[in-house]
Amino acid sequence: MLRTEDTWVLIPLYNEAEVIYDVVTQVRKTFPKVVCVDDGSKDTSAQLAQEAGAIVIHHPINLGQGAALQTGFDFFLSQTDGRFLATFDADGQHRCEDIVSMRDKALNEDLAVVLGSRFLTGASQEMSFLRRCVLKLATVFTRMRTGAKLTDAHNGLRLLRRDAVETIELKHNRMAHASEIVEQLLDSGKKWAEAPVHVRYTEYSRSKGQSSLNSVNILVELLLG
Length: 225
Prior knowledge:
By secondary structure, the chain is α/β, with parallel strands linked by helices. 44% of the residues lie in helices and 16% in strands. It has a single domain (7-224), classed as Spore Coat Polysaccharide Biosynthesis Protein SpsA, Chain A (Alpha-Beta Complex), CATH 3.90.550.
């Protein structure tokens, strides 16, 4: 049995046909158990993810990343006996080796939750000034609501032990889910920590305008919330 076979990787998926085959292939070299929740993609993302070896769950229409994550959490709890679940972005920005170090940290320190942070490394220098400011603001809001001294409240790379996944019930389908999931995990009383991760802002993700658009979405939902 591989050392990592107790860990599933959950990838929310929406229109990432250009990169998803390679992302799943790379992840499965270390973590063979991958589930992708295809959130109503209009391209061949789901087919390519399946060809790369992932289990694919389909949303017939686009509901948002929060909804995709909740579907993945429900699958993990009802259909697997996995010990850990990692959430991982589909666009190639996350690194599999960071999941390995987060899992090691969880085992060594008996943690139920390990949250990835860009701001514990030098990785934040790659992001735009707007995105850095918005992410810092999101972190301040989360600190005010939870009292937790987080450094990065909107990082999609997380490692959750099974008992932590059981505490999550997301209501926000879109960008606000990132704050909601952190707040639910911290409110659960489970032992947690942050771990340094490196987010790669690739030419592909930049070409989609993802960084700027998501920054605006996060800011709007924070203000409305």
